[in-house]
From TrEMBL:
The protein, known as: Phospholipid-transporting ATPase
Gene: ATP8B4
GO molecular function, one term: magnesium ion binding
Family: Belongs to the cation transport ATPase (P-type) (TC 3.A.3) family. Type IV subfamily.
EC number: 7.6.2.1
Residues reported to bind Mg(2+): 440, 442, 863, 867
Recorded GO CC terms: plasma membrane; trans-Golgi network
Catalytic machinery residues: 440 (4-aspartylphosphate intermediate)
Length: 1242
């Protein structure tokens, strides 16, 4: 280390803390913000040599402000970012290297080299080089286009402007030119250019507000505050230019919530924590300006450290194809060796008799050398088993599937005019094999909009509409919303449909008034007026914004606050309350309270928090009200609403003074300060009087519940990975029906050490396996071949009733230790997994864990920059163009605007793509084995001379012209069942997950089928031609007639076969199949005509042969016999299979045919309520520490008197949209109705 640190009097060891930060092994030293340190150290003159260790691994960072020359010695990265893969110089070599990693491309290159050797070339070289160059060029253009857009995105970011302090002047600089140590100025609503140490701001005490949606997905504002010594610099450019502090801090890392360092300035040292740092990707909000010093730039920023690398993605079918190509090449080598040995034997025993006749020179060619050359010749001839047209066709089919996704109107979101987009064309069939979905929460499952929906006050529910017979009814637009015109300051976006609450307010119900008064007083919201005189709320959490806005609309308007007072307007009257104490929220207390004195001198404690906590603090006289409120909370929780209990207490003046004196003593204590304060909070928050409860809706995106249910029926596991709080994530889990009260147990892993996490995981596994059957034994060690079956057995017996919740700090320990296998095993046994407070990198690590150990196809979906790593890591990455920018979309493989479209993307487009691609491959291999292996059988009758059985033009055109379009039509348009049936019966998705439609077994079946067809194609005509004569008495067994007969039989057989394989007929299928046969005969007669012979006499010497052969009735009988012998076994087998062992798709197809005329109506999904067990719906997206800020006054601007005229004031700072559309939406349970009605019948 380049510094020598020593401890100060308080025991603060900077050296130890920095080492801990570098290793990520200890927590940040806990100190009050801005506290001065008397740490003494000397800077060694040789630090440059010690800065890097072990091959340029940075172990700590040293940055001096306003000194580029000093900082350049460390060779820190600049602020330019690179997400692209290529540049002009590296594109060609890197792209070619990537393309030739595909075994088929290397295989065809090898064949091309062989065809360039005249001694062994039996086919011309252009038959290989043209399609090979075409495929490589098409792929290169696609890759270049993709990378061009990455470059464009990089340039857009790198060329953003920022004000940088250079030579004592603020100059506009591009982001990419910003250097470590620079001081830059940010203005309101600007993105932060690099990771900065906050120096000063426009707010009091050096505070600034930031939005971190790009980092953690949370849109609620967070506070950062500068050191008091630097906040004094203000906006004085001359003083900022003279600032020469040196920061010593941790090396670049990906930990978003930790930062450890020391600032040395003016012979004093100051500790730096995360609260002093503003990270790249954040947006400055509600702060006019701030100045910051660049600590990390470009790739060293925590955002880029979490972004992950762009990976080259290939589908499982691509990987299988690589294996199969190697197998086929080995098969060809075996065939070549057999034929080469046959040639050597034939040359030795029979060939000598032909030497004189063929004018060969004696000794010029021995048998072994002849066999060697024949081997390579047959390798060239037989290479059509895997023609390059296969890969051209695959790319065309994938392109077609991509366009179908882009053109799907049912995935078009009219709200933002956003269509679905396939941003890659190489992964479509993988969409049909997904087993695990990793989803973000905020903005993906939810709209990130909080709406006050219901409340319970003094045992009565408000927010439900009743009909004339006093029965609860669905809220519809027939029952108009409450008219808030009596309140000129009401939020016009707020809607509420229960008029009885307004009536209770007007009647002066004291409990209702007290309830709304509490909502207006007990919070951390800040208010201000903009230039237009409009009231704006700065909300630290969207929950609080919803509650304060509701109180505002009902006439209790929060107006302003100072460190000592809160001013609200109660039904038109301004009332100022004295703020005596603020009992802040934290994750242990799960509640917050304020103690205020009203104008009458009464002291009141107002509290809100989790019902499970607050109910324990109630006075015994609340039992009856507690019972009814608990029932209401159960109902709210069952509807997926976020709930808070509301209570108050009247305090005696003398008691409060004694209590407050003890609180002051506790705050001044050096030992056990936090424990003493917590105890005093507990003491005063007792004997509370219950007022009721609130129910806020974190609005789910439309169709989320139906989508989750449908995907679950398709045996797809959904894991939620979110940076949000545990309670919030759990509540959304219940709202989405991922979590239910019917579950046997919900395991919560929240250990703070590896030992604790290991113990919790093993305890959970013990509970799970202890209650399951013995199927779980041996699960981990079972072979992969049996693992899918065993997994399904275990999941059927142990899962469906369990869920796993794990926190980010616990997950960090689990992923970085030997217990990750325990975590994975437990998680995979659970129906639902929710990971809370996870960093972007942890999201990617979870995906990688499942990819590596489960060998399952994964999909990640998110909408923010914090999801980019996860999207890049998964096999399929999907970006939602939502509220948090386009970073996720730019990094994704597919994008759309709503989570509900995922159902159609997977169950329809994904399943069809997989089904079509598998059908295409099966047919293609069958067709080419049947076509190619005829040469093998012919070799035994032509002296193993590498003579082709077909003429060269037929070989060239067979895969390009005669059979290409029908198989393309099938691969692009075919479907076994309709799109609606695919959605209604999610179980149809399972064959893709189990990889049933194309695997090694299916490949061998196709090979055997092709071998059988090749035998029929060769030996039936051969036997018929043997000693046969034509109708005119002439011999017809010439080589060319034999070739024409076999070629005609082959074209007809493969055309009939694809007609049998086609499940869904379109006009295009008919035109392509029957048109290909017509094209074959047209070209055949043309090539054997006099006209073409006169033009190219050397290329087409067999004049009139086709006409002569095909006018013979015996030839057509041979063709018919060959076709029947080839096809009848297939027809028989398929008929018996469908009749005796029908698959689910066979059954659904039969059902479709039966229901074409009379399709039954879908039954409506009944409303479900979870009343089986008591569950708290508590979820509060709040952070600890705001109470201290409020009471200290650090976040207060200069106090402005409350306005006297309030007409026309409107809240614009807090978003709230109408939720009546969601409540009026009539959803139908098509998934349930189909699976119950059809699958039982079938």
């Amino acid at each position: 280390m380049p510094f020598n640190f020593c401890k100060d009097d308080s025991g603060f060891d900077v050296n130890t803390d920095l080492e801990a930060a570098n290793t990520g092994a200890s927590e940040t030293v806990r100190r009050n913000a801005g506290e001065k340190r008397s740490v003494h150290y000397s800077i060694a003159p040789t630090f440059k040599n010690e800065f890097y260790d072990f091959g340029h691994i940075e172990v700590e960072r040293i940055v001096k402000a306003n000194d580029r020359e000093y900082n350049e010695k460390f060779q820190y990265a600049d602020n330019r970012i690179h997400t692209s893969k290529y540049n002009i110089l590296t594109f060609l070599p890197i792209n070619l290297f990537e393309q030739f990693q595909r075994v088929a491309n290397a295989y065809f290159l090898f064949l091309l080299i062989l065809q360039l050797i005249p001694e062994i070339s039996s086919l011309t070289w252009f038959t290989t080089i043209v399609p090979l160059v075409l495929v490589i060029t098409m792929t290169a253009v696609k890759d270049a286009t993709d990378d061009y857009f990455r470059h464009k995105s990089d340039n857009q970011v790198n060329n953003r402007q920022s004000e940088v302090l250079i030579d004592s002047k603020l100059k506009s600089e591009k982001w990419m030119n910003v250097k470590v140590g620079d001081i830059i100025k940010l203005e309101n609503n600007q993105f932060v250019a690099a990771d900065l140490l906050l120096l000063s701001s426009s707010e009091p005490h050096g505070l600034c507000y930031i939005e971190t949606a790009e980092l953690d997905g949370e849109t609620n504002l967070k506070v950062r505050h500068a050191l008091s010594v630097t906040s004094e610099l203000g906006a004085d450019i001359s003083r900022l230019a003279k600032f020469d502090g040196i920061v010593v801090c941790e090396a670049p890392n990906n930990k978003l919530d930790k930062f450890t360092g020391v600032l040395s300035w003016k012979d004093s040292k100051y500790s730096l924590k995360n609260e002093k740092i503003i990270l790249r990707g954040c947006v400055l909000r509600n702060t006019s300006w701030c100045f910051g010093m660049v600590i990390f730039a470009g790739p060293d920023t925590k955002l880029m450290q979490n972004s992950g690398k762009t990976k080259f993605k290939r589908t499982s079918i691509d990987r299988l194809m690589n294996t199969l190509v190697l197998w086929i090449f080995g098969f060809l080598v075996c065939l070549g060796i057999i034929l080469a040995i046959g040639n050597s034997i034939w040359e030795q025993q029979v060939g000598d008799q032909f030497r004189t006749f063929l004018f060969w020179n004696e000794g010029k060619k021995n048998a072994v050398f002849s066999g060697f050359l024949t081997f390579w010749s047959y390798i060239i001839i037989l290479n059509t088993v895997v023609p390059i047209s296969l890969y051209v066709s695959v790319e065309v089919i994938r392109l077609g599937h991509s366009y179908f996704i882009n053109w799907d109107r049912q995935m078009y979101y009219s709200g933002k005019a956003t269509p679905a987009e396939a941003r890659t064309t190489t992964l479509n069939e993988e969409l049909g094999q997904i087993e695990y979905i990793f989803s973000d929460k905020t903005g993906t499952l939810t709209q990130n909009i909080m709406t006050f929906k219901k409340c319970s006050i003094n045992g009565k529910i408000y927010g439900e509409v009743h009909n004339d017979s006093n029965q609860k009814t669905e809220m519809t637009k027939k029952k108009g919303p409450v008219d808030f015109s009596f309140n000129p300051q009401a939020d016009k976006k707020f809607q509420f449909f229960d008029h009885s609450l307004i009536e209770s307010i007007k009647l002066g119900d004291p409990k209702v008034h007290e309830f709304l008064r509490l909502l207006a007083l007990c919070h951390t919201v800040m208010s201000e007026e903009n230039s237009a005189g409009q009231l704006i709320y700065q909300v630290q959490s969207p929950d609080e914004g919803a509650l304060v806005t509701a109180a505002r609309n009902f006439g209790f308007i929060f107006k302003s606050r100072t460190p000592e007072t809160i001013t609200i307007e109660e039904l038109g009257t301004l009332v100022t309350y004295q703020l005596l104490a603020f009992l802040d929220f934290n994750n242990i207390r799960k509640r917050m309270s304020v103690i205020v004195r009203n104008p009458e001198g009464q002291i009141k404690l107002y509290s809100k928090g989790a019902d499970t906590i607050l109910f324990e603090k109630l006075h015994p006289s609340n039992n009856d009200l507690l019972s009814s409120t608990s029932d209401h909370l159960n109902e709210f929780a069952g509807e997926g609403l976020r709930t808070l209990a509301i209570a108050y207490r009247d305090l005696d003046d003398k008691y409060f003074k004694e209590w407050y004196k003890m609180l002051e003593d506790a705050n001044a204590a050096m030992d056990e300060r936090d424990e003493r304060i917590a105890g005093l909070y507990e003491e005063i928050e007792r004997d509370l009087m219950l007022l009721g409860a609130t129910a806020v809706e974190d609005k789910l995106q439309e169709g989320v519940i139906e989508t989750v249910t449908s995907l679950s029926l398709a045996n797809i596991k959904i894991w939620v990975l979110t940076g949000d709080k545990q309670e919030t994530a759990i509540n959304i889990g219940y709202a989405c029906n991922m979590l239910t009260d019917d579950m046997n147990e919900v395991f919560v892993i929240s250990g703070n050490t590896i030992v604790e996490v290991r113990e919790e995981l093993r305890k959970a596994k013990g509970n799970l396996f202890g209650q399951s059957t013995s199927f779980s034994n041996g699960h981990v060690v079972c072979e992969k071949k049996e693992q899918l079956k065993l997994d399904s057995i275990i999941e059927e017996t142990t899962t469906g009733d369990y869920a796993l919740i794990i926190n980010g700090h616990s997950l960090a320990h689990a992923l970085e230790s030997d217990i990750k296998n325990d975590l994975l095993e437990l998680a995979c046994m659970c129906k639902t997994v929710v990971c809370c407070r996870v960093t972007p990198l942890q999201k990617a690590q979870v995906v990688e864990l499942v990819k590596k150990h489960k060998n399952a196809v994964t999909l990640a979906i998110g909408d923010g920059a914090n999801d980019v790593s996860m999207i890049k890591s998964a096999h399929i990455g999907i970006g939602i163009s939502g509220q948090e920018g386009l970073q996720a979309v730019l990094a994704s493989d597919y994008s759309f605007a709503q989570f509900r479209y995922l159902q159609r993307l997977l169950l329809v487009h994904g399943r069809w793509s997989y089904f079509r691609m598998c059908k295409f491959l099966c047919y293609f291999f069958y067709k080419n084995f049947a076509f190619t292996l005829v040469h093998f059988w012919f070799g035994f009758f032509c002296g193993f001379s590498a003579q082709t059985v077909y003429d060269q033009w037929f070989i060239t055109l067979f895969n390009i012209v005669y059979t290409s379009l029908p198989v393309l039509a099938m691969g692009i348009f075919d479907q076994d069942v309709s799109d609606q049936s695919s959605m209604d019966c999610p179980q149809l998705y399972e064959p893709g997950q189990l990889n049933l439609l194309f695997n090694k077994r299916k490949f061998f079946i196709c090979v055997v089928h092709g071998i059988y067809t090749s035998l029929a194609l060769f030996f039936i005509p051969y036997g018929a031609f043997y000693n046969a004569a034509g109708e005119d008495g002439q011999h017809i067994a010439d080589y060319q007639s034999f070739a024409v007969t076999m070629a005609t039989s082959l074209v007809i057989v493969v055309s009939v076969q694809i007609a049998l394989d086609t499940s869904y007929w379109t006009v295009i299928n008919h035109v392509f199949i029957w048109g290909s046969i017509a094209t074959y005969f047209s070209i055949l007669f043309t090539m054997h005509s006099n006209g073409i012979f006169n033009i190219f006499p050397n290329q087409f010497p067999f004049v009139g042969n086709a006409r002569h052969s095909l006018t013979q009735k015996s030839i057509w009988l041979i063709v018919l016999l060959t076709a029947v012998a080839s096809v009848m076994p297939v027809v028989t087998f398929r008929f018996l299979k469908v009749d005796l062992y029908p698959t689910l798709s066979d059954q659904v197809r039969q059902w479709q045919k039966a229901q074409k005329k009379a399709r039954p109506l879908s039954s409506r999904r009944p409303q479900t309520r979870r009343s089986s067990s008591r569950r708290s719906g508590y979820a509060f997206a709040h952070q600890e520490g705001y109470g201290e800020l409020i009471t200290s006054g650090k976040n207060m601007r200069t106090k402005i008197p409350p306005p006297t005229s309030t007409s026309g004031l409107e809240k614009t700072g807090y978003n709230s949209t109408s939720w009546i559309e969601n409540l009026c939406k009539k959803t139908t349970d098509t998934v349930s109705s189909f699976s119950q009605d059809k699958t039982v019948k079938l």
